[in-house]
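Quick one: structure tokens for this chain, please?
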Amino acid sequence: MDTPGASKDPLHGLTLEKIVTHLYESYGWEELGYQVRINCFISNPSVQSSLKFLRKTPWARKKVEDFYVYSLRKKLLK
């Protein structure tokens, strides 16, 4: 039974920085760029440059968040 007030959203309480860092640590830039196909992960990637792009590009942020949730469900994250 769930505790009252517990969120079922796997992204609840996570910052975009934590998501990108966890994905990078689990996959590396090359694999992350292959999986998500966003240029910020392919061309001269870094956490800070990726965050800057993702914060101003809603469709890209959604792709990253969806991939993170997928990776959590499939237990692919380190």
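The domain at 16-74 is CATH 1.10.720.30 (Transcription Termination Factor Rho, Rna-binding Domain; Chain A, Domain 1).
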